[in-house]
Design a protein that fits this description.
homodimer; 318 residues; alpha/beta; 2 domains; 55% helix; globular
Chain lengths: 318, 318
């Protein structure tokens, strides 16, 4: 561990925003030194409540997150927000999102907002997000809100790492709504029907109740449904209460919550292992030029990709 | 290579639907024998045109895919459809989708439909989908349509492996539409505005044209915009033509298309490597019981996950 890292860890624990931002960038870029830093701050984590907000595009999650953050701030909590944006860095979606939000919230010293975007093969978005949460947690943000767009594997992985997950729906969406619901049904501890002033809210609520009634959770928790109109700050108090209720439920059912924490830790170890192994293989097993030549031979159908992978693995001597 | 695998490969190449279905299940489950089979069929791949259909939930992609498949069938092509469904196996979304579609299409011997769902940590959905495409390709399906819901990393990975990608939009969606567009802007070779009989279609078209005008592709292709109403079979001919035009463009710009094929192959090798390395580590580096104990120690904060991963990697002797 270098002295520089030790200083950075100390700065993070003291809540230095620039050190936090730089540390998140280093986990996002997958820098080698990040692991040492994360080891050092690890004992300071596990105190914040991590709230996942996930659901369909167009559901108004950003506004909901901003209003929720404002409520927590008003109650004196320190709030970290991570908006996971799978859009390409090409169009700068994540940065733009940051800037718009910054105007309203980021002048507040008790709040930290960060967008994270997927950055290609080695990105490991889910792993980077979990590390970023650990950094905010160590920095003393005791409400950490992670907002995810869409229903891909990354989203599910991120949701699994949250203490409480809120699935956000919106009335009257299209044909694929059932699929979306299916995607969030399993991971939602609480459901918010946002834009609840729209037509079709009762139907959406009934459908959701029906889906919830046919699925029983192993921990016995019945996910509540909260109706919100985030743009008008309606229903936010009920959402805050539902989140607190679930956190209390988990605290009073230690057996289940210990299982859940162990399962989160297992998942995290496996994801980190996957990431590290690939990095090692690309450093030690094959040079960039060789990999390019191998890819060309597969593209030309002179070789098949399966035996190329066999060869790289054989070189590693595992 | 066992005699049984050789027989299976032969059956696949001869278009035996039961052998195809079983082979796709084996790549989906990540069975050890699948790699041998894939090696054997590899020389028979690369003949079909792989068409990715991707875009926002609720855009009516399933109907669009079914209509597109019907057009190709009418022109005498053999059509394989893979619907990638990230929803949980818990609610059976993927199976249900299969069954509904089966009624309309699957009695046709020139069509093969399969839904693929994400199955947890070891799933490797993108890798399994690419392998499933290879199986359908070897089996002589010369139009292979891959439908993906959402805009996560898996979707981007799958889209990268397609020869042509169609980004599907729908008029008048919500606040997050810009993010979705950003997600598909980079991967769409063609854009379809579906449900084009709805209000707001001109605005969506103008926004899309604007976004396309500010981004120039390295290959010089200008992605066309096609308006469709899939439920009424409107605009499908234009879509078929746009797909054919892009395939022609790629064929007449060999330099770019060779680069693209090499880049697809590289991506595929890396994904397979990632998958295989994790599997090896979980077989050789750590037992399931040990991993459970390690996860518990991380959950209890007796250990940090970074040094646990260091330990497993050290055991592999890489």
């Amino acid at each position: 561990m270098s002295a520089e890292k030790a200083i950075t860890a100390e700065k993070i624990i003291n809540g230095d925003k620039r050190a936090i931002a730089r540390a998140i960038s280093s986990v996002e870029d997958g820098q080698e030194g990040a692991a040492d830093l994360l080891k050092e701050i690890f004992p300071h984590t596990g105190r914040g409540l991590v709230i996942g907000i996930t659901g369909a595009p167009g559901a108004g999650k950003s506004t909901l997150v901003d209003r929720l953050a404002a409520r927590y701030r008003a109650a004196g909590e320190r709030v970290g927000i991570i908006a996971v944006d799978p859009s390409s860095p090409f169009t700068g979606g994540a940065l733009l999102g940051d800037r718009i939000r910054m105007q309203n919230l980021a002048t507040d010293p008790g709040i930290f907002i960060r967008s994270m975007a997927s950055r290609g093969n080695l990105g490991g978005l889910a792993r980077a997000t979990v590390d970023a949460v650990a950094i905010l947690d160590a920095a003393g943000y005791n409400r950490i809100i992670v907002e995810t767009v869409g229903v891909g594997q990354d989203e599910v992985d991120i949701a699994k790492a949250a203490d409480v997950t809120v699935g956000v729906l919106v009335p009257g969406m299209g044909d694929d709504i059932q699929a979306i619901k299916a995607g969030i049904m399993e991971i939602g501890d609480i459901f918010a029907i946002n834009k609840a002033d729209r037509e079709g809210v009762l139907r959406t609520e009934r459908e959701l109740e029906m889906l919830l009634s046919i699925s029983e959770r192993p921990d016995g928790w019945k996910p509540p449904i909260v109706k919100t109109v985030a743009t008008e700050d309606t229903g936010l108090e009920a959402l805050v209460e539902a989140i607190a209720s679930y956190a209390d439920f988990v605290a009073s059912h230690r057996h289940h919550s210990e299982n859940r924490r162990a399962s989160i830790a297992r998942h995290r170890i496996v994801e980190m292992l996957r990431d590290r192994l690939l990095r090692l293989a690309l450093n030690k097993g094959v040079s960039e030029a060789e990999l390019g030549a191998m890819a060309q031979s597969v593209a030309d159908r002179r070789r098949d990709p399966y035996s190329v992978v066999d060869e790289i693995i054989a070189r590693l001597g595992i």
